[in-house]
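Subject: mismatched residue count in predicted assembly?

I count 285 residues in my input, but I want to confirm that the predicted structure covers every chain. Input:
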Amino acid sequence: MRIALQAIAGLIFGLGLLISGMADPAKVLNFLDLFGSFDPSLILVMGGAVMLTFVGYRLAFRRGQPWLASRFDLPVLKAIDLRLVAGAALFGLGWGLAGFCPGPALVSITLAGTSGLIFVASMLLAMTVTQSWLVRRQQVAGADAS
Amino acid sequence: MTEFTPYASLAGGLLIGLSAVLLMAGLGRIAGITGIVGHLLPPWRGEVKGRAAFVAGLVAAPLIFTLFHLPLHAVTVAASTPALVVAGLAVGAGTVLGNGCTSGHGVCGLARLSPRSLAATLTFMAVAFVTVFIVRHVI
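Triage response: the counts match. Full output below for your records.
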């Protein structure tokens, strides 16, 4: 049941990306090209997604508990620190260079040919290396503290 | 040039929102692609099967269009191979360091009115605008 719900959520997310046009890097780059061939479509993608999520989250939280889990698992980090800003900036650079962010890159993996594969392989490699490094650093910090 | 598609884009955005609400109402989880994919890569931690199912659903989405003979928006990649490698590495490292991408921070975080997600979203949007400006109008 839990697995089926996640499969359906992934499918709906993918359909949303495809229908909205956000899976197409050309459309994303035109949205980001304020002083050129600006295409404002993505404002509606983000706006529609945020508005529906805002309302839906409130209804979900009001119930007190998720349908299939014991509690809501919300992010605990609150600090706006260098790691957050540097990470977001690095992400923005990559997003602006290729027009792909993680969701659209995955949904169009079967549509974007070799280019899509190259991007996704590079992205997954960097994710693996970065999170392995973060975990190791945490373990070292933990060992120091004990 | 790409055409302004207000209705399709709004409809797609609402579907993305619906998916995010389903994950929260059903499992109490954030629909963040970075977090979901990150759990499927080494060093593995947390539940894998459900997250793999989410990614499988995501990757299978184009099949629905084929199955029902619906027109599929073209996917046009203009970036060169070196640019794609640099972009992929930057997106991978940046989203892990910043704990999220367009979905986790941009959609779920903003919907939760999280100041941290707002800071992340403003940062990646600003840098992406500047990057496209430099690539298209300066270089």
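The radius of gyration of chain A is 19 Å. Marking this ticket as 'not a bug'.
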